[in-house]
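Private note to self, pasted from the team thread so I don't lose it. C-alpha cells:
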C-alpha cells in the first residue's frame, strides 16, 4: 500500500476510492508530519500527533497512511522532491560538488533525515528521479554503469555521514548548552594531569593545530569538504586509468 501511495499521482489511488468523500488529502497528512518532524525530530513524531495536527482521529489517520514507517517513507520522498535538480554543467568536479551540496543542504533543512535512514528506503517517484538525475552527471564521462552507481552511492554516503556529524554536534551543543571551547576549557586541567606532555606527541600536535585553526575540537564542514575533494580526486583518477 505504501508504494501505491508513493506513486499515487501516477495511479489515481484516491480518485478510484469508493465511500464517503475524504476530509483530507494524503499530501496534507505528509506535509503536517514534515512540519512536526522539522520542529521536534523524528523520535517525537507519532501517528497521534499527526492526527491532532490535521484534525482527525488516530483511527481515521490510518485510513490515509497504513503505519508510521510508511509515513516516514512518504515524508522522505516528498522532501527530496523539494530539493533542486539543476541541469548538469561544468566539469566533473563541479557536478560532484553540486550534487553533494544539495544533499548537505537537504539534511540541514530537515535534520530528521539522518534518523530516517534506519527505516526502509521506499522507492518513490522523487527518489527515483533523484537517482536518475545523479546518474546523468556521469553519463558519457567514461565510467561504466557499475562505477556510475558506486560513485553516486559514495557521494550520498559521504554527505549523509558528514551531515550527521554536523547535526549531532549541533544537537549536543543545544542540549548541553556548552560549546566545544567551553567544554575544553572546563576539562583541560584534568586532561593535562592524565595526559602529560610527550605521552601522545602526534595527537597532541595535530589536536593543537586543529583547535587553533577552528577554535573547536573539529570542524564538521571542513571534514566534509576535505572528503568531497578526496572523492573528486579518486573519480578523476579512475577516469585517467580507464583512459
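Design output:
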Amino acid at each position: 500500500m505504501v508504494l501505491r501511495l508513493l506513486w499515487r499521482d501516477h495511479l489515481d489511488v484516491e480518485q478510484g476510492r469508493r465511500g464517503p468523500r475524504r476530509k483530507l488529502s494524503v499530501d496534507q497528512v505528509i506535509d503536517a508530519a514534515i512540519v512536526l518532524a522539522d520542529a521536534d525530530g523524528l523520535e517525537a513524531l507519532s501517528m497521534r500527533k499527526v492526527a491532532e495536527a490535521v484534525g482527525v482521529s488516530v483511527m481515521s489517520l490510518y485510513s490515509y497512511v497504513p503505519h508510521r514507517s510508511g509515513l516516514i517513507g512518504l515524508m522522505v520522498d516528498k522532501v527530496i522532491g523539494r530539493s533542486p535538480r539543476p541541469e548538469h554543467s561544468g566539469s566533473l568536479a563541479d557536478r560532484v560538488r553540486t550534487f553533494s551540496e544539495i544533499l548537505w543542504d537537504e539534511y540541514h533543512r530537515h535534520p530528521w533525515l539522518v534518523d530516517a535512514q534506519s527505516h526502509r528506503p521506499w522507492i518513490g517517484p522523487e527518489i527515483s528521479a533523484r537517482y536518475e538525475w545523479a546518474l546523468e552527471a556521469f553519463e558519457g564521462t567514461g565510467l561504466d554503469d557499475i562505477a556510475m552507481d558506486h560513485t553516486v552511492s559514495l557521494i550520498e554516503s559521504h554527505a549523509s555521514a558528514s551531515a550527521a556529524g554536523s547535526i549531532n554536534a549541533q544537537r549536543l551543543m543545544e542540549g548541553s548548552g556548552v560549546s566545544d571551547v567551553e567544554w575544553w576549557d572546563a576539562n583541560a586541567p584534568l586532561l593535562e594531569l592524565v595526559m602529560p606532555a610527550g605521552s601522545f606527541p602526534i595527537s597532541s600536535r595535530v589536536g593543537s593545530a586543529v583547535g587553533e585553526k577552528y577554535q573547536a575540537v573539529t570542524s564538521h564542514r571542513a571534514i566534509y569538504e576535505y572528503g568531497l575533494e578526496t572523492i573528486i580526486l579518486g573519480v578523476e583518477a579512475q577516469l585517467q586509468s580507464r583512459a
